[in-house]
């Protein structure tokens, strides 16, 4: 591998190893701490994506999360936690790799997890399988 590629690879390996070993201890302020089933700020189903703004599959998640956040207002809460910028945020979630998406019901109970890139279509299908059918906001006319 050459320079920057090797540096990115080693950084990725270090982050994954750090997460597996449990580096850090604090979840993001608005996150539901796993195991508590504490309700989210709103009584909506919630998707938490743990990733980083520099990892390739995580970057691919950015437009997916933005779309969900924009088009499912009032039906779904979407949160992104950057575990490279805040390494402590990953430990309570016991993630193995990034990106990891965690699906919570409106009461804060974890329903499911997915590791790796997850398309909008697949995320909506997962919610439906979990018994939550989301309908996009109608397009606003000019």
Brief summary:
This protein has 142 residues and is of the alpha+beta class. The protein has three helices and four strands.
- Termini distance? 50 Å
Could you say what the CATH architecture is? Answer: 3-Layer(aba) Sandwich
Mean pLDDT score: 79
CATH superfamily: Glutaredoxin
Extract low-pLDDT stretches: 8-40
Q: Helicity level, as a percent range? A: 25-40%
| Beta-strand proportion | 15-25%
* Shape, per Cα inertia axes: globular
* CATH fold name: Glutaredoxin
What is the CATH class designation?
Answer: Alpha Beta
Number of helices: 3
Total individual domains: 1
How many E-type strands? 4
Largest sheet, strands/sense/barrel? 4 strands, mixed
Strand order of the largest sheet: 2-1-3-4
Radius of gyration over C-alpha positions, nearest whole angstrom: 16 Å
Q: In terms of structural class, how would the helical and strand content be classed?
A: alpha+beta
User: How would you spell out the order of helices and strands?
Assistant: HEHEEEH
Task: Provide an overview of this structure.
The protein has a single domain, classed as Glutaredoxin. About 23% of the residues have low confidence. It is globular and about 45 Å long. It contains three helices and four strands, in the order αβαβββα. The chain has 142 residues and is α+β, with helices and mostly antiparallel strands. Strands 2-1-3-4 form a four-stranded mixed sheet, covered by helices on one side.
